[in-house]
Design a protein that fits this description.
By secondary structure, the chain is mainly α. Helix content is about 70%, strand content about 0%.
């Protein structure tokens, strides 16, 4: 009888009320913080000099407010992450998630770019073509008087031709007013952001159905992605959209379409070319005739080459594009943790043995060799064709590339890859979302090297913890029972 009374007092409605109210509280807190972010951005961006060649906003003001704001955003997201992961499905409350995402986006759009001046660079580089009718792969913005109002004005275009064409269209549609330019570029990013969320929903529905709504919410409410994509307007969301579309095509067994999406990503930023071998391995391991497999690979190569030719020919740029990218890579002096380790070791080696210090180009070549060895190992690992293992391989290849061959490694490049950890069924990967978010905010309050070092160290510590826990669990199970 006592047991019956306990069950009757366990009203299902009362049991499920607290998650709903908790979600509402997190949404309101996030909304307040994004509004505060917008107000700080408006207050600290100088009115008399609206464009800067470096980061804008709090870099020329007191960092205290920004540090507190970032810490609060990360802390709330960490709590939200634990809540979502423990709860699993939030289907009944997902409309609220979407509604608050729209509010977050509205706050971030009205604020000037607070942390990066790259959005100005995108607009002005497009103007080089649409207004000045100059080839951006042959001429630098500084040659046309943009030297003091945009970042990296001395460099010719390093992005692929697809991005160049997209930016030209956006600039042409938005007209001569800078405010309208910024709004149109950001709204295009918001459109891609929504598309990425839909792709994540569709993919996780296949790989980890019980985590579908949770994974989508963790993407939509991630403060680092929202700030980078909407407020700073970085074009890396285009890369992510192509990669996610490729993943979705693979799980639908549309391998040719997956290759085309990777090709489009390559024509925005070249890094997705590294994912083609993984896709080709997947094709070769499918249960079909050898002729069918070879034909799929040939169609992908021919079709992507055709698209590249169509986009490159008007600019006559392929050689110039690769040359610009190569120059940017060898001129880079921003170091990730692995690069810093190698550079430091080389420095002390030269001091101890009284040898001439290795030059920067020599070290860059050493990084490329290190990447190549790691890349081959990743490709040769087994089980790439089982379940969602190809998604994990995508993630690790991109991480390895960003550690060793990112021409100028900025933390927002992680947008290409860290949403991938939400797609896999392996729950151990999901915690990595917090690592990337923390290191992203650290980048803006300290420096590039420390943020990247923090990210790599967190990944290494977490991997060591998982391996250690697995070892002790196995040893414990082997102990005799008393």
């Amino acid at each position: 009888m006592m047991q019956d009374n306990r069950i009757q007092n366990d009203d299902p409605k009362s049991v499920t009320e607290w998650p709903r109210y908790f979600l509402y509280a997190v949404g309101v807190l996030f909304g307040a913080l994004y509004l505060l972010y917008a107000l700080i951005a408006i207050a600290t961006t100088p009115k008399q000099f609206p464009f800067l060649g470096t980061h804008v906003g709090f870099f020329i003001s007191d960092k205290t407010a920004a540090i507190i704001l970032f810490f609060a955003l990360f802390l709330i997201y960490a709590v939200f992450f634990m809540f979502i992961v423990s709860l699993g499905q939030i289907k009944q409350k997902f409309k609220f998630v979407i509604l608050m995402t729209v509010l977050f986006v509205a706050f971030l759009i009205i604020a000037p770019p607070f942390l990066s001046a790259d959005l100005y660079g995108y607009i002005f580089r497009a103007e080089i073509v649409t207004v000045h009718h100059v080839n951006p792969y042959h001429s630098a913005p500084a040659d046309l008087g943009y030297g003091n109002i945009m970042p990296s004005s001395h460099m010719q275009m390093t992005y692929g031709p697809l991005y160049t064409v997209i930016s030209m269209v956006l600039q042409r549609l938005s007209g001569p007013l800078l405010f309208v330019n910024m709004l149109v570029f950001r709204l295009f990013n918001v459109f891609l952001f929504a598309g990425c969320a839909l792709l994540i929903y569709r993919i996780v529905k296949f790989t980890a159905p019980r985590f579908t709504y949770a994974a989508t919410a963790l993407f939509l409410w991630n403060p680092f992605i929202l700030i980078e994509v909407v407020n700073n307007g970085h074009n890396d969301i285009m890369m992510l959209a192509c990669i996610l579309a490729s993943v979705y095509a693979v799980i639908r067994k549309k391998f040719v379409l997956a290759g085309i999406f990777l090709g489009l990503g390559m024509l925005i930023k070249f890094m997705t070319v590294l994912l083609f071998p993984i896709l080709f391995i997947l094709i070769l391991k499918q249960k079909s005739t050898v002729r069918s497999k070879i034909m799929k690979i040939i169609i992908i190569v021919v079709f992507v080459s055709f698209i590249a030719a169509v986009l490159y020919i008007p600019f006559d740029t392929f050689v110039s594009n690769v040359t610009n990218l190569n120059r940017a890579y060898f001129e880079s002096n921003k170091l990730t943790f692995p690069k810093a380790f190698v550079s430091t070791a080389a420095y002390y080696f030269s001091e101890v043995f009284n040898r001439e210090q290795l030059n920067q180009n020599g070290l860059q070549i050493l990084y490329l060799i290190t990447f190549f060895i790691g890349y081959v190992i990743l490709l040769l690992l087994p089980r790439v064709s089982r379940g969602d293992n190809f998604i994990k391989r995508y993630f690790w290849v991109l991480l390895l590339a960003l550690c060793f061959i990112g021409n100028v490694y900025n933390i927002w490049y992680t947008i290409w890859m860290f949403p991938l950890v939400l797609l896999v069924a392996d729950a151990r990967y999901r915690l990595l979302v917090l690592f990337f978010t923390l290191s992203g905010f650290t980048f803006y309050v300290d420096n590039n090297l420390f943020a990247n070092t923090l990210l790599i160290m967190l990944l290494l510590l977490y991997y060591s913890y998982l391996k250690g826990a697995e070892y002790f669990r196995r040893k414990f199970n082997e102990w005799p029972r008393i």
